Amino acid sequence: MTRTAEQMKGRAGRLARLMPSGPSTAARTPFVLLVVLLLAGGLISLLLLNSALNEGSFRLSKLKRETTELTDEQQALQRDVDGYAEPDALERRARELGMVPGGSPAFLNPDGTVSGVAERATAEPSPAEAPKPEPSEAESAGSDPASPSASPAGPSPADPSATPSPPDPAAPATQAPAAPAPTSSGR
Hints:
The chain is mostly helical. 51% of the residues lie in helices and 2% in strands. A two-stranded antiparallel ribbon has the order 1-2. A hairpin with a 5-residue loop joins β1 and β2 (114-115). The radius of gyration is 49 Å and the shape is rod-shaped. Mean pLDDT is 73; it is low at 142-180.
């Protein structure tokens, strides 16, 4: 038994001489600190990168939602514009404003001559419209002289109570029959 203890002591002595314990721990400390700092820096940069990507993702989804809302609004406005541009709607709105289809036009040529004979529009407003009461003489005398109701030129073509004069049989019939308006918007 003593012999094995002596042999062990000898082996432990030789191993102790091959691996010194004192100076080696001091040399490893800066390397370990460097590795820990690199790992911590990598984790922090990964966390910051992930946060930036998430922020960009949230911003992208917000912009997509705004784009969808604006696209819906644009389509609704386009439907309104298309509805107002339909021939039936234009005609109805013109009748509400007191407009009537015009007669034959006259054109001014570049050299200053006039071609064609202009005729007054003689159509009556639509029968669906209720006739408006005509102002009395006392009311029209106090109104603005530039207004059509006070002008001495006669009744306006939009006035429902005005009776159009019959066409002159001696005048040439230059007015072509009106073509029916298309019912679609052409799209």
